[in-house]
Design brief:
354 residues; mainly beta; 1 helix; four-stranded antiparallel β-sheet; disordered C terminus
Length: 354
């Protein structure tokens, strides 16, 4: 939700108020001319030095401001509802939109080019713009709103041939929720990898303990990544979480952290004893599965909701299992062929080959 929290002292101390809609006169709410710090969530806010959105405007984009440029001077607050995603303003050298023109779509220091101190009129196609008298966001400034056609800087602003810097207000960060569409998952590859092999032989007529430990630890790996669509509107730095399962919450940060690798240790139980006159063979196997799952992204920004598709991919090697093979040794004086079958070793939950 778009909101602003204002404080009567610097560093977010003292009395505070939170607002989610325009406030034409803070004095009516007993908070006029006392704001010294503030926090903004979502879209930018404009603070005015006079009630009813008059006086000097000061813009505050999403973030925390432990101090403000004009403490104890704000009398009104206005939320910027406009779409700020694709700003554009056209500057003209002469009044009434005449003469040479320049189209600007991003923050620009005109002192670095040929249009410094030459602007006399403008048309705002999209976005909300801050216009400054001096380079580096310095000096007197004013706001330009979407659709605004200001025909003469001298008559309307007393600002002719004085514009040196301008920038569009930045939209608040969108809120992104992600949902894995498991019903559409695709298993792209599946294989078993041998990670350990243990052999034991009991040549006696009585049951013997296995020399090895009754359990062993093995490492597992989960590699996972998220791929945005080519048409995504999300910008670098935006982050959200993807809940793959209760124990696996994958944080995606666009342009910085779109993949991760998890390594863990798992314990595998082994049989404790070998039957009389039997050879025991144990194979420890890791099952690796490569899969992809479509992801539905729901993006909320400035009270508007849109959706995009992405893709979650993973190569999972977290499933470790043990396979056992018991082979009777040849009886004294004759050969005895091994018979084969499959059952569970009691208490282990593992497959036993006989």
């Amino acid at each position: 939700m778009n909101r602003i929290t204002v404080y009567e002292r610097a560093n977010f101390e003292g009395l505070s108020r939170e607002f989610t809609c325009d406030v034409p006169d803070l004095h009516e709410l007993d908070f006029g001319d006392c704001i010294a710090s503030l926090k903004v969530v979502g879209q930018p806010w404009i603070a005015y030095t006079d009630p009813k959105y008059e006086g000097e405007p000061y813009a505050f984009e999403e973030g925390e401001y432990p101090s403000v440029g004009r403490p104890n001077s704000f009398s009104a607050l206005r939320l910027v509802h406009h779409d700020l995603g694709d700003p554009q303003i056209t500057l003209y050298e002469q009044p009434n939109f005449q003469g040479a023109c320049k189209v600007v779509t991003e923050e620009t220091n005109l002192a670095y080019g040929y249009f410094n101190d030459r602007v006399a009129s403008h048309v705002v196609q999209r976005g909300v713009w801050l216009l400054y008298q001096h380079p580096g966001r310095g000096g007197w400034h004013c706001l330009a709103w979407p659709g605004e056609r200001l025909a003469d800087y001298k008559l309307e602003l007393n600002f002719q041939a004085r514009l040196s810097h301008l920038r569009p207000l930045q939209p608040g960060r969108p809120l992104v929720s992600a949902r894995l569409l498991w019903e559409q998952k695709r298993v792209e590859a599946e294989r078993e990898v041998l990670v350990d092999e243990i052999e034991g032989v009991n040549e006696t007529e009585s049951e013997q303990a296995l020399a090895a430990s009754s359990s062993r630890e093995y490492g597992t790996t989960l590699w996972q990544s998220f791929h945005f669509s080519n048409a995504t509107s999300l910008k670098a730095g935006l982050s959200f979480t993807l809940t793959v399962e209760a124990s696996n919450i994958f944080t995606v940060q666009k342009g910085r952290s779109e993949s991760s690798t998890r390594r863990e240790r798992v314990e595998v139980q082994l049989p404790a004893k070998i039957p009389p006159r039997t050879a025991l063979s144990i194979q420890v196997l890791r099952k690796e599965v490569t899969l992809s799952v479509p992801v539905l992204l729901t993006i909320t920004q400035n009270e508007a909701v849109r959706t995009e598709m992405g893709e979650y991919r993973s190569v999972s090697g977290t499933n470790i299992s043990a396979r056992y093979s018991l082979k009777p040794l040849p009886a004294a004086g004759r050969e005895q062929a091994a018979t084969e079958g499959t059952e569970l070793v009691p208490g282990t939950g593992m497959q036993l080959k006989l």
